[in-house]
Model the fold of this input.
Amino acid sequence: VQLQASGGGLVQAGGSLRLSCAASGGTSSSYNMGWFRQAPGKEREFVAAIRWSGGSVYYTFYGDSEKGRFTISRDNTKNTVYLQMNSLKPEDTAVYYCAADTGYASGSYSMGEKYDYWGQGTLVTVSS
Done:
């Protein structure tokens, strides 16, 4: 599975960006997907996840600082996961990574170790 993240850039505080993560190479609509971020000098942080519940039902989860501002979604026809980010703050500045959880590893959806495949990251910079 290959993941290609895109959509990062420079935005002013209060602005919006939409990140995309295109998956290829044997993906499945049952794969759980997540977004993480890592700011300079800081540890990787969970941002959001969208998890398959069966059929066409998915549940979404967010980190505490992202609730109400970020929305994760997916378009299985395009094998793409999105992260819509609104009301951006300077502290949202980071490299954002998408990741795929095939269900092989155990653990919480908020832990990076749960994910088997990672994209290369896309830089989001929010100016004050």
